[in-house]
Specification:
The complex is a heterotrimer of chains A (about 650), B (about 260) and C (about 325). Chain A is built from 26 helices and nine strands. Chain A has about 650 residues and is mainly α. In chain A, the strands form two sheets. Chain A has a five-stranded parallel sheet with strand order 1-3-2-4-5. The longest helix of chain A is centred in the first third of the chain and has 32 residues. Chain B has seven helices and 15 strands. The chains are: A mainly alpha (about 650), B alpha/beta (about 260), C alpha/beta (about 325).
Chain lengths: ~650, ~260, ~325
């Protein structure tokens, strides 16, 4: 006898039609839900266009099917998700195949059926294993980043029920029919063995309907719950990766389609909260809360029926000014399985706030006013910008006609902040020692625009950008070396079509060392640790150069903090925070300095002037003055330089 | 309901945030030269913020007046970008370095020419000369009820309700309009005006009415200049620190205690 | 006759210390003018204060008493003073640069047809024309200007805590009643009530003891609290201040913060403990009369702007200091 399965066993004709109707309703709900999402997106998005990108598609395939991002940093999570994904996918394909067999062409018979049945049985077990693992992680292990809301319990239990009723339905039929191929449906058979043939026949319709209704309602509920990520996540991964334009000033405060899909597809997995230094310092900001609040706001604003995730409607969280806390360190983007950057959404909220004008914190307002009037956020004066270079006999490109190979772009902090000026001088001394032909822009050095950009003042940023380009043009600057990673990032990534090359000083130092233009003397033995600046490391993937430099200095032993490289913990100075007065703002830097202390190093090396200031303050506040020294990489190198003959 | 007419007097001054190093005192010419951009005097910005908040509550029209020898169109347009409806510049050589009474007299004439008004708002003092008189003298000249040092202003039923600073707290007062109120910083900072708003206002076609002295100041008016007898730089911030020495901390502490005693 | 008139400030029946400072500078000016020093007092009942003014050397005290003058209401106070000045015709009229003075001065100047200079830090008589030379800081303190104006009386408001308060003398002045012609209809601004606020009025303190990161722990502020108690036995209003780092650390609340983003203060004595002297902090207290610093770092900026300093660990100095203060004061 050819292996087969009776699909509508004991399900009469009328029942068929009831079933079709229910299916229709379910699908209708599902489509209506999806339409609701698209309507909300259309109403809010600045643009609803998505172009085709092979790279983005590749990313989707890799991330969706192999769940690579979910494995990152949490193998258990990755494995669990892998089971859920493949279990569900196979069962889904199986169900579709069954429908095709029933209504299109009857092919699920014979060997094909046996393989089919086996696959389905195995898939169901895989899915159940995944669900069980998920529930253990969330409710027994209580993994900190996972939330425990009604939805989080309801969805897995519901899905588990669907799978289990599926097995029971199969088992009941097998119990009655007792076909010879039962071993291919081993799980169903095992369940079936718990019932007599008579029970099998009697109970079957009930279980069939139960399974049917549970499954159909599951499908209908996809848009209503976090299950939306089944479709939302691939869409999100695609839209985040297809290569957005460098920047558009007009409408840059508006959320684009990628942002909206990201908000809706967010599974609240909490990796961003785990990575976020703000959340880690117990500040009132967490990327997940922010994204969810954004999502809720959008639905309340644009959907006539309110938030489609009705289970979460009672949640309230004020986003308020909390988005001013974000340091824009990008740690969230580094870990988000959807490549979602909550910090970008935070900046967009800032753009809106700045444009509207009323909810801008006072210190931000004052800093922006200072930037606008004096081209720097530190002082209400332009006149001291070149003061650090006094008496140093450096070529000022703005006062002489000389043109030099490179232009050393010092940046506001190192020019103006008294404790940072030594660093500015250090790099100039190193360049002189290596006989590099360089010049500076002195008093006329413009602002790169980073602070304005992060604070959301795009008009000011555009003005500063134009001004900088004019200065570079006027003084023939074609090869820039910046001190600050913030300036580096701005010149490199936010100045489209820039006619110059730009490097961060670590790149230059590394090259000079490689070319043996800098030689080191035998030095004292010391253990050092290196703090990766967010804007050098995560933003621009420069992790190795500074480490190579440190390793070239004799006597130094480099140890790493527990969060280093791409996982480096922000010092708290970015995103405009250096100029804000947020409550408890010192905690973030303290967390980092404690991490440094834990390495046993005597010296913490930084490569960003803001990091140095923040960590210095933290060192003082934590009472670690005697145990740790904070030093900029330039000063470290300078101290170790052998005098040239 | 008739629209509430508010007049805000705003002075243009060199940025008061400029550090000492950018301020040069020319003792001979008796001029203070500040190497800083021109801005709206901070307390006057507070006055504008107070006006804007009233405008959010009810139908109101805000006219900003600014007076000086040379008043910058670019700087003053910020008032419009913030939400003021009209800007009038009072610009004349004759308005240079006038004393407080004369400034108030000129403003009074301008306001008389404007005609209708319900509320006049000024900052409590200007960020350059810090006299703090013009608003109050203006109220006297126009014979208006006057409230100074406001930290909150509301308008209701033809009255202005003000919370004003007093020693150790604040007082709530009521005056019938038309009235004049001088504003303190507790009212709140002027909302942030984005660069894009400023640029839009600068590119805006409307030209700003500029009145010369002859346009509105009565022929017989005697305008007096400030009479500066002497102008100098402030003394240096650094002090000669006397370090109290001692062989033990207790000894040093004893010397310090003696100093406290002498300072009683 | 050259009369130098002072507007006295009566607080709870007695003369406020600012009035004593005005009397001090008034007396000097009266001497320069070969004239007399007199005081005008407004209120419902000011006899006690008038007698006190006499004891401080006023040649004449004018009592302007009226029920409507019970509290400060500018409309009737200005009217009363206008009338008083018309009767008295002083050569010079001085007020404190207080909230009342700031309001009365300009309005009175307008009504009397004279010119006022506010917030004066120095006053003298020009020997050539007998006019008042008024010195005041301008441009946010970036310059100091001396003005001279026409008009009688020569009118000025005087900055508090600049001049020395006058000492009591064996005064034999006379007390004169000046009845004001005022009534309710003059009051154009109606008072609806006064609200007292409990803020830490750091800028009202005479002595501020401030702590910074160098305290190394929250308990450091307890020690400073003890020091301020010891000092308050002699120095009146002693308060605790802090730098931003200390506030950020949660050692103390932000209303104690001194500096650019805290409160700007100018107490008689500023004691800085464990503060290195970031510019944002220094700007907030640099106008203190005397600055005393205790810090282990001899090279820190605070010492450069201090009058006295001890380069030592505060934990070793402060307890000893408290003990010595208790003995000496």
């Amino acid at each position: 006898m050819t292996p087969y399965r009776i699909i509508y066993w004991q399900i009469g004709h009328t029942a068929h039609w009831i079933f079709y109707t229910l299916s229709g309703i379910s699908v209708a709900f599902f489509l209506a839900g999806m339409a609701a999402y698209i309507l909300v997106w259309k109403k809010d998005a600045a643009s609803v266009e998505l172009s085709f990108s092979w790279d983005a598609l590749k990313r989707v395939i890799l991330d969706a099917f192999f769940g690579l991002r979910v494995f990152r940093g949490d193998i258990a999570a990755g494995a669990m998700h892998f089971l859920l994904f493949w279990g569900f996918l196979i069962l889904f394909i199986g169900t579709v195949s069954m429908a095709a067999h029933e209504y299109v062409v009857s092919y699920l018979t014979g060997t094909i059926y046996l393989v089919y049945s086996l696959a389905m049985n195995v898939a169901g077990l895989i899915l159940l294993a995944g669900i069980l693992w998920a529930l253990i992680r969330r409710y027994i292990q209580r993994v900190p980043r996972l939330e425990r809301r009604l939805e989080d319990a309801l969805v897995p239990f519901w899905l588990a029920l669907v799978v289990i009723t599926g097995y029971v339905v199969e088992g009941l039929q097998l119990a009655y029919l007792q076909p010879p191929w039962y071993r291919w449906s081993f799980a169903g058979w095992w369940i079936g063995s718990l019932f007599s043939a008579a029970e099998g026949k009697d109970l079957y319709p009930y279980l069939w309907w139960a399974h049917g209704i549970l499954s159909l309602s599951f499908v209908a509920a996809i848009p209503l719950t976090k299950l939306f990520h089944i479709l939302g996540a691939p869409a999100g991964i695609y839209s985040q990766n297809y290569g957005k334009p460098v920047e558009i000033i007009e409408g840059a405060g508006e959320f684009d389609l990628g942002d909206l899909i990201f908000f809706d597809a967010c599974m609240r997995c909490g990796r961003c909260v785990e990575a976020c230094p703000s959340a880690g310092a117990a500040e009132p900001f967490a990327p997940r809360d922010f994204v969810q609040a954004m999502r809720r706001d959008l639905w309340q604003k644009y959907s006539t029926l309110g938030d489609i995730r009705f289970l979460g409607r009672s949640e309230v969280s004020e986003v308020d000014e909390k988005f001013w806390y974000c340091t824009t360190c990008r740690a969230c983007l580094e870990v988000c399985p959807l490549y979602g950057g909550a910090f970008e959404a935070a900046i967009k909220k800032r753009v809106l706030a700045v444009e509207e004008g009323k909810d801008v914190p006072k210190l931000i307002s004052q800093t922006l006013a200072r930037l606008s009037k004096y081209d720097n956020p530190w002082e209400s004066s332009r006149n001291k910008r070149g003061a650090w270079a006094e008496g140093r006999d450096l070529v000022d490109l703005t006062t002489t006609d000389t043109r030099t190979d490179i232009c050393y772009f010092v940046g506001c902090t190192t020019s103006l902040e008294p404790t940072a000026q030594g660093e500015a001088q250090a790099f100039s001394k190193i360049l002189q020692s290596a006989r590099v032909n360089f010049g500076i822009l002195g008093k006329k050095e413009p602002c790169c625009g980073d602070v304005a950009r992060r604070m959301g003042e795009l008009g000011l940023f555009a003005e500063q950008r134009e001004n900088s380009l004019n200065i570079f043009d006027e003084y023939g600057v074609s090869d820039l070396v910046t001190f600050s990673p913030h300036c580096f990032n701005a010149f490199k990534n936010e100045y489209p079509e820039a006619p110059y090359r730009v490097r961060h000083y670590t790149m230059v130092l590394r090259e000079l060392i490689a070319r043996e233009k800098l030689r080191f003397k035998e030095g004292d033995v010391a253990t050092v640790t290196y703090h990766d600046p967010c804007y050098l490391g995560r933003y621009n993937r420069i992790f190795d150069e500074p480490r190579e430099i440190i390793r070239s200095i004799p006597g130094l032993q480099l140890v790493e903090m527990s969060h280093h490289g791409a996982d480096s913990l922000c010092c708290g100075g970015g995103g405009g925070r250096m100029w804000q007065d947020l409550e408890g703002v010192g905690k973030m830097s303290e967390v980092r300095i404690r991490e440094a202390e834990a390495t046993g190093a005597q010296i913490v090396v930084t490569a960003c002037p803001l990091c140095r200031i923040m960590l210095e303050d933290a060192r003082k506040a934590a009472g670690l003055n005697k145990k740790l020294r904070i030093i900029d990489l330039n000063e470290l190198v300078l101290q170790a330089l052998k005098e040239r003959d | 309901m008739k629209e509430l007419e508010i007049i805000v007097c705003a002075k243009q001054i060199p940025d008061p945030e400029a550090p000492l190093s950018d301020v040069r005192v020319d003792a001979e010419k008796m001029e203070v030269i500040v190497d800083a951009p021109q801005v709206i005097s901070p307390f006057d910005e507070n006055a504008l913020e107070a006006a804007l908040r009233i405008k959010e509550e009810m139908s109101a029209k805000i006219t900003v007046l600014s007076m000086g020898k040379r008043v910058s169109d670019t700087v003053m347009r910020k008032n419009l970008a913030a939400g003021a409806d009209k800007l009038i510049l009072l610009q004349d050589e004759a308005f240079e370095n006038l004393d407080s009474h004369s400034i108030a007299a000129v403003l009074a004439e301008a306001i008389k020419k404007i005609g209708e008004y319900d509320l006049i708002l000024t900052g409590r003092q200007a960020g350059d000369w810090d006299f703090g008189q013009v608003g109050l003298i203006l109220a006297e000249l126009l014979v208006l009820p006057c409230v100074s040092l406001a930290r909150e202003i509301k308008v209701k039923d033809g009255n202005v309700l003000v919370k004003k600073n007093i020693l150790g707290g604040y007082e709530e007062v009521k005056a019938k309009m038309p009235a004049l109120v001088t504003v303190s910083n507790e009212v709140g900072e002027l909302r942030y005006i984005s660069k894009t708003k400023m640029l839009a206002m600068l590119r805006g076609a409307a030209s700003i009415p500029t009145w010369k002295s002859g346009d509105f100041v009565s022929a017989g008016a005697k305008l007096q200049k400030m009479n500066i007898v002497e102008l100098s730089s402030p003394p240096d911030m650094r002090r000669d620190c006397e370090i109290l020495e001692g062989s033990t901390p207790a000894e040093k502490a004893e010397k310090l205690a003696a100093i406290f005693r002498s300072l009683r | 006759m050259n009369e130098v008139l002072i507007l006295g400030d009566v607080k709870e029946g007695a003369l406020d210390i600012r009035t004593l400072e005005l009397l001090g500078v008034g007396r000097k000016l009266a001497g320069d003018l070969n004239g007399e020093l007199s005081v005008v007092l407004l209120g419902e009942q000011v006899s006690e204060a008038a007698k006190e003014a006499v004891s401080y050397g006023a040649a004449r005290v004018y009592k302007v008493e009226h029920p409507l003058l019970a509290g400060f209401r500018a409309d009737v106070w200005v009217a009363s003073l206008e009338q008083a000045c018309s009767k008295i015709k002083p050569k010079v009229f001085l007020m404190g640069h207080s909230i009342t003075g700031m309001e009365l001065g300009p309005r009175l100047a307008c009504r009397l047809g004279t010119r006022l200079t506010t917030d004066c830090t120095n006053l003298s008589i020009d020997p050539q024309d007998g006019l008042l030379l008024r010195t005041k800081p301008v441009c946010g303190g970036n310059a100091v200007s001396v003005f001279k104006c026409q008009g009688e009386p020569q009118l000025a408001t005087v900055r508090g805590k600049v001049f020395e308060p006058v000492a009591a003398v064996d005064g034999k002045g006379e007390i004169v009643d000046v009845a004001p012609a005022i009534d309710e209809s003059m009051i154009k601004v109606e008072s609806l009530g006064v609200v007292r606020e409990e803020a830490v009025a750091l800028d009202k303190a005479e002595v501020v003891v401030a702590g910074g990161a160098g305290l190394e722990e929250k308990e450091g502020f307890d020690m400073l609290q003890n020091l301020s108690k010891a000092l308050s036995k002699t120095f009146g209003n002693v308060m605790i201040g802090a730098t931003r780092v200390a506030v950020d650390k949660g050692w103390i609340t932000s209303d104690h913060q001194v500096g650019l983003t805290g409160t700007m203060i100018s107490p008689d004595i500023f004691v800085s403990v464990g503060i290195s002297g970031a510019i944002q902090h220094i700007v907030g207290m640099i106008r203190s009369k005397k600055i005393i610093t205790i810090n282990t770092d001899r090279g820190c900026t605070m010492f450069k702007v201090s009058d006295y300093g001890i380069a030592e660990d505060y934990k070793k100095v402060v307890p000893a200091l408290i003990q010595k203060l208790e003995e000496l004061l």
